[in-house]
């Protein structure tokens, strides 16, 4: 019989591209990961990797197994969560509360979809939600913190730090789009060069934030020096200001779920930027409830066309 632990390790190996990287993420040694994969190959009767002195390469059989393993593990997590709910009783008394930190746009556009799923109540997951910016939610994961799981984003490599004791899992990439006022009479979906927008009015992040620093460097690299007409860190406000004709803005896909009529999206080849969405959690607070939330959230992001985790 195939061991579900080995399936989880397989997913991490394929995601990370090596036994050593997977071991670091999972808290194992590289030797332990290699042994698990050998055991999984024996149990399944197939070769999952082509091994060489320098690298490992998943076989087509591994790719097929990964696809099915995701569903199997999701079903197992849901079963465990439902069992916990049943043990807690019909009124939920005794159910373990899952304390979730989440950033605003994910709470606005993804979390309601997760909570609105027809079978959500049957899973018996009692959520307590804290909505805040990443630097705020990370604080809640400290040893004496009030959170079990934090969903954060990071733009580029700057601005955020967290204890090495936290496990980080990539969930998806939320791509930024260039938004223009419709009143500028540029067709929706047009390709526009950075040079054409170089001296146009822009709505920008407040200086000093990590996002603003990354965006400023990107703009400078393509010789785009915007005329700033507003500073705003609220994407919903930026969208409506752009719709009113104030200026262009850089807005991620998640926030564009409520795109107003007065804006258009254009493609600027020189501007390619995404904020990566991660889950952070202490290893000692992992549970079947956490795994269910992670799997369900990845599916919701895929529905919203946010690049999902592999």
UniProtKB/TrEMBL annotation:
Coiled coil: none
Sequence ranges assigned to domain HTH lysR-type in this UniProt record: 6-59
Name of the protein this chain belongs to: LysR family transcriptional regulator
Keyword field contains Calcium: no
Keyword hit for Transcription regulation: yes
InterPro entries, alphabetized: LysR_HTH_N, LysR_subst-bd, WH-like_DNA-bd_sf, WH_DNA-bd_sf
Keywords, alphabetical: DNA-binding, Transcription, Transcription regulation
A Pfam family per the record: HTH_1
UniProt similarity note: Belongs to the LysR transcriptional regulatory family.
């Amino acid at each position: 019989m195939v061991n579900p632990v080995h399936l989880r390790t397989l997913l991490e190996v394929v995601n990370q591209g090596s036994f050593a990287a997977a071991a670091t993420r999972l808290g194992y040694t590289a030797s332990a990961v290699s042994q698990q994969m050998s055991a999984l190959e024996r149990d399944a009767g197939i070769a999952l990797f082509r091994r060489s002195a320098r690298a490992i390469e998943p076989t087509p059989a591994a790719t097929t197994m990964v696809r099915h393993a995701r569903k199997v593990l999701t079903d197992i997590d849901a079963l465990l969560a439902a069992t916990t709910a049943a043990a807690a009783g019909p009124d939920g008394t005794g159910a373990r509360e899952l304390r979730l930190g989440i950033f605003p746009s994910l709470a606005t556009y993804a979390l309601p979809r997760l909570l609105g799923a027809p079978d959500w109540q049957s899973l018996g997951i009692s959520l307590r939600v804290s909505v805040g910016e990443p630097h705020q939610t990370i604080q809640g994961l400290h040893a004496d913190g009030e959170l079990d799981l934090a969903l954060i984003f990071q733009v580029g490599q700057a601005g955020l730090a967290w204890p090495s004791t936290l496990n980080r899992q990539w969930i998806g990439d939320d791509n930024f789009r260039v938004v223009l006022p419709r009143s500028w009479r540029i067709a929706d979906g047009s390709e526009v060069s950075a040079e054409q927008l170089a001296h146009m009015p822009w709505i920008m992040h407040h200086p000093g934030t990590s996002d603003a620093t990354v965006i400023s460097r990107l703009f400078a690299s393509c010789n785009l020096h915007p005329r700033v007409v507003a500073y705003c860190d609220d994407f919903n406000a930026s969208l409506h200001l752009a719709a009113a004709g104030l200026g262009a803005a850089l807005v991620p896909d998640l926030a564009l779920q409520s795109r107003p009529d007065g804006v258009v999206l254009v493609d600027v080849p020189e501007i390619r930027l995404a904020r990566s969405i991660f889950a952070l959690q202490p290893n000692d607070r992992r549970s079947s409830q956490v795994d269910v939330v992670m799997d369900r959230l990845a599916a919701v992001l895929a529905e919203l066309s946010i690049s999902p985790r592999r």
